[in-house]
Write a structure and sequence with these properties.
Belongs to the glycosyl hydrolase 35 family. This is Beta-galactosidase. The protein has 13 helices and 31 strands. It is an alpha+beta fold and 598 residues long.
Length: 598
């Protein structure tokens, strides 16, 4: 069995110096049938290691459940890493950030106000202990010390950037995590990572754990900062930011390949180890994307392309080749013949789809209820409904003199309907907390959308939904009926309604609601779904929720992994929240991730 150690100057694999050249590849952002392809391309670029976070809430979406199957099969992913002859670094949190919903922390756990978020608090530590007991044994059996690929395991994540607990309390918490990790048979080296900042490195680690840093440029300066806090041992950039994520309403981020490659060259020439964040970004499928809030709430886009060396669809980019050339100056690099460097990238299938069957938004809501609506003598949060992600519906009565609806806060967005007619939107991002109401009595319905729980900063763990009070021009609205929805399963739940829907034709505008069309195409081929003319909603192909679309941009296409597509009888379903100028969608030959900042 192998031995991986942190030596006085270098990482040591069986006593020999190892310069770790790793790339971040999140199994949870890639279709499982494509894991092997992405891992293979990592080796061909010159990487010797794959790093992945583990999102706790992805495996434990509700209390009492821990899922390690299908998309969540971390063991299979690590086995594929080993089969490619690569090593692995595992970062299980409990907090991961990663622009993931809630930073990976389960909303159901943090809904209990007694639980101390990222602190030495019994309820939080007890839950982490159960999480580790469910997860870490499969990591332990795949450590290098047992013939597997795993070299190292991280403790927490950029902890120096969070909270204001005094240092002794912070270290007490980190040592508790170390004990919980070791209790599950993890015997490989443990480490922490923090931004290359003196204060954060001092607050985020332990004297007895190896410290790593995160940065994307100015290697010499950043390593000098890290060396002040890690006087001996190898220097490692655990997140070399070679790109950036996109948020709805902002531009698509690009980082020049030449600059990234030059910074990487500096890092490797200095003898440092590195983990590229990201090597391959992938996609925030379903409702998994997080959000940032630094005064303005900004949800993360569906595409997590990240301007990474390997694009969202697995295509090598100019950055891939530039970085491969750099790595080849310092370490042996495998032949790229299999990848076909000089081959032209083919276009994806191009076709139009008519979405002729539809059911209106008011008509679909009853069929999406997860449970019968409950009565509340106050406006509930979606946490009160035990809804940890997705959509909920709220209802109450209106009087003719109410005139305006205002809420204390909306987290994060609500379509406002009166007797089934849309009259406005409440929106956290634009600070729209009031809507004019028609001058008549009727039923008020709010379709509330959680657009992603905050994944960084002090607002981690906050409740979602409508945060009261809710007022009109003349009174406070206290009596509510509310229920969670199963929106993720909409095509399956409403299949009979769609089958019975009147064919609306392929021309004209589309109302808010569920829309369906079918198409034939190339089985197994990646597709790029473009929804020009549509406003905001969710998209499914063959029952798989691709994620959110939004005319706000920057992203103009949704990635459809080839394994989802068959030759005939494919189904495209859209949940359109507002209405569209068309009843058609298109599949285009290449992705369009939006206007850039350049």
């Amino acid at each position: 069995m192998a031995m991986f150690e942190i030596g006085p100057e270098d990482f040591l694999l069986d006593g020999e110096r190892m310069q770790v050249v790793s790339g971040a590849l999140h199994y949870f952002r890639v279709h499982p049938d494509q894991w092997a392809d992405r891992i293979h391309k990592a080796r061909l670029m010159g990487l010797n290691t794959i790093e992945t976070y583990v999102p706790w809430n992805f495996h434990a979406p509700v209390p009492g459940v821990f899922d390690l199957d299908g998309r969540r099969d971390l063991g299979r992913f690590l086995d594929l890493v080993a089969a490619e002859g690569l090593h692995a670094i595992v970062r299980p949190g409990p907090y991961i950030c990663a622009e993931w919903d809630g930073g990976g922390l389960p909303a159901w756990l943090l809904a209990d106000p007694a639980v101390g978020v990222r602190r030495h608090e019994p309820g939080f530590l007890d839950a982490i202990g159960k999480y580790y007991a469910s997860l870490l044994p499969l990591v332990a059996e795949r450590q290098v010390t047992r013939g597997g690929p795993v070299l190292m395991v991280q403790i927490e994540n950029e902890y120096g950037a969070y909270g204001d607990d005094p240092l002794p309390e912070r270290q007490k918490y980190l040592r508790a995590l170390v004990d919980l990790t070791r209790d599950q048979g993890i015997d490989v080296p443990l480490f922490t990572c923090d931004q290359a900042n003196d204060e954060m490195l001092a607050r985020g680690g332990l004297p007895e754990l190896h410290k790593t840093a995160t940065f994307g440029s100015r290697t010499t300066e950043r390593f000098e900062v890290l060396r002040r806090h890690q006087p001996t041992g190898p220097l490692m950039c655990m997140e070399f930011w070679n790109g950036w994520f996109d948020s709805w309403g902002l531009e698509h981020h690009l980082a020049p390949a030449e600059a990234n490659a030059a910074d990487l060259d500096d890092l490797l020439r200095a003898g440092g180890s590195v983990n590229l964040y990201m090597f391959h970004g992938g996609t925030n499928f379903g409702l998994t994307s997080g959000a940032n809030d630094k005064g303005i709430y900004r949800p993360i886009a569906t595409s997590y392309d990240y301007d990474a060396p390997l694009a969202e669809d697995g295509s090598p980019t100019a950055k891939y080749w530039a970085m491969r050339d750099v790595i080849a100056r310092h370490l042996p690099v495998a032949s790229a013949e299999e990848l076909g460097r000089d081959a032209e990238t083919g276009t994806a299938p191009v076709l139009d789809v008519a979405l002729t069957a539809h059911v209106t938004l008011p008509d679909i809501l009853p069929g999406l209820l997860r449970e019968e609506p409950r009565a509340f003598p106050h406006v509930p949060s979606t946490d009160d409904l035990e809804l940890w992600s997705g959509f909920a519906v709220y209802r109450t009565g209106l009087r003719a003199d109410d005139a305006v609806l205002s809420v204390g806060e909306i987290r994060d967005r609500a379509v406002v309907l009166v007797d089934g007619e849309q009259v406005g939107v409440l929106d956290r991002g634009s600070h729209t907390f009031a809507v004019a109401l028609p001058a008549r009595a009727g039923e008020l319905t709010l379709l509330v959308e959680d657009q992603g729980r905050v994944n960084y900063g002090p607002r981690i763990g906050e409740p979602k939904g409508i945060i009261g009070p809710v007022r009109t021009a003349v009174r406070t609205l206290d009596e509510w009926q509310a229920a969670a929805l199963r929106v993720e399963d909409a095509p399956e739940l409403l299949r009979a309604a769609l089958d019975a829907a009147t064919d609306g034709g392929a021309d004209g505008a589309a109302v808010a609601g569920l829309h369906r069309g079918t198409f034939d195409s190339v089985a197994g081929a990646d597709h790029f779904l473009r929804l020009d003319g549509w406003t905001k909603g969710l998209a499914w192909v063959n029952g798989e929720l691709l994620g959110r679309y939004w005319s706000l941009g920057p992203t103009h296409t949704l990635y459809v992994p080839g394994p989802l597509v068959r030759k005939q009888g494919n189904e495209l379903v859209l949940l359109e929240l507002h209405g569209a100028a068309t009843r058609r969608a298109s599949f285009v030959g290449a992705p369009d991730l939006g206007v850039t900042e350049q």
